[in-house]
Structure formats: structure tokens, C-alpha cells
Amino acid sequence: MKAAVWLLDLFYPPRCVLCRKLLQKDERDFCTPCRLALPIFDGPWELPPEFSGAAVALRYHGTVREALLRFKFNGCSFYAGSFAPLLAAAASTLPLPALDAVTWIPVSRRRKRERGYDQTFLLARSAASILDKPLEACLDKWRDNPPQSSLGPADNRRANVAGVYRLRRGAACAGRRYLLLDDIITTGSTAREAARTLLSAGASAVYFAALATGRDP
Q1: Which phi and psi (to 5°) does residue 165 adopt?
Q2: Cα–Cα dist 137/152, whole Å
Q3: pTM for this prediction
């Protein structure tokens, strides 16, 4: 195993997830300058009624935005292991002992097929392991609606996601308290619709955490 890691490092030397510069031997995932300059989100914002609590790790701009675009669209699925500790750290500010499980906001089957993976599932799987909480697949995105980023005003975004999620077959949410995870939140329309689906299925509480946000605190 050590030999395999050594060969990987030789032919594919590790680079900073954000600036893509080669990492030094004592650095992991992020180079020291990027780690020190991480744009930590220092909210909170007004809490939507669907959430019992919410937290966000980073601001979605600069090298964070560029890295997340690579993560979502350019095949950099391995970034999940680098970003998950930041997401878990943000989520740890919520009342984790009261939670029954972690779940996530899924992409549609079409987008998963195009990308080859669901980036939010990868984040949630790693974050749930760090938080020592079970991961449950609760939601399906059954309609492939237009990307939220293309729609502008909040009213358009809310209409775009109305009814796009449904409870996954076999999921039993009644009386359970969930930590709902996502990669990026802007207006919150997508997250609120996913939370409403869980609550309509009987979930007793939904807490929310995202890796990054493009909104102001």
C-alpha cells in the first residue's frame, strides 16, 4: 500500500485543492497560504421555518468557487475527501447528539449519469463518517429541472424546485431528526424544498449544513 501511494505521489504529486500548486510534505489538501485564507462564512442569516438550525462552512467566491466547479462538473470527485472535514466542522456547531441521521440533497439521475457521480452524496458520506452519524438515503430528485444558477430572482428559483423531490422508496422518516447536507446554497429554495419533503414524510426536525454559500450573512 505504501509503495502504491509513493508511486501515485511520484506521477501525480498532490496539489492544493484551491490554487492547484504542489503541496509541501507537511501540507494536506490545502497549501498553507490557502488554508490560512479560507473564506469562512460568518453568518448566520435569517433561519427559514423549515430548519431547526443551519450552518455553512465557506463563502462561495474566488478559488473556493473555482474548486467547487471542478468538483461538480470536471470530474474532481476526490475533492469530497478534502472538503468534507470543513462541512463536518460547520455541522458540529449544530446539536448533533439530538440527530438520528445524516442525509443529503440528491442530483437527478440524468445529472448523476452525466457527471458520473453525485457530489453531494460523496460529501455527505465522508462528513457523516467524521461526525459518527449514520447516513440515510431519504430523497430522490425525480424531475430534472433547469439549474438554479440560471434563474435569477428568488421567486423563479422557488417555482423551479417546487415538487422536484420525493421520498425514496423504503425510506422511513417518521419521528426522525435529520441533518440535511448540500454543497452550495444561495437563496435556499432547493434546501427548503428538500426539507419540506422530509417534514411532510413525518420527520420531526431538519437541520441543515452546506459547504459554501454565495449569499451575504
Answers
A1: -110, 150
A2: 30
A3: 0.87
